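User: Show me a protein chain along with its predicted structure.
Assistant: Here is one chain, sequence first, then structure tokens.
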Amino acid sequence: MPQYLSIKEASEYLGISTHTLYKLVEREQLPAAKVGGSWRLNSEALDDFLGGQRRPRSKSPEILIVDSDLKSRRELASMAMSRGARIQLATGVEDTEVLLTAGMKPDLILYAIPRELDQAFDFMSRVRATRSNCRVAAVVPPERAADLADLMSYGWLIVLPVPVERPEMVNLIASL
């Protein structure tokens, strides 16, 4: 399992200053994800970077994970970060709307559908009002997937079964 390092830990690991590391991250020369306001770097990706085995992508996909369950948010974030995605977390529609209105332009929104489907319709309406072309992946138990047919009219939508498996996440990120 990969280890995720803070900026300070990663700068010590690489033997460079935190200032230099911030520059590399900001220029997207190193894959990193922002989680809760702090940058995290995958130690395996740092090894690849140092070894010259792989060049980081010019732009890591940015994913907004919207889920009220903390454990689920962490699991989804861990899977996405392991594939080099930049992550932002939100707990619900209000958080999401604030982020999108503030200028966030995610490549994908991973949205855990709540029990009340009316909330899902409200979420999609508000997302489409702010970012009409943003891809949304609904994370939902398979038995509820049929209930989402009406949500398809709101635009591009992927349905992922719960629990999300690593290969599904890898394929989804690779498609961005």
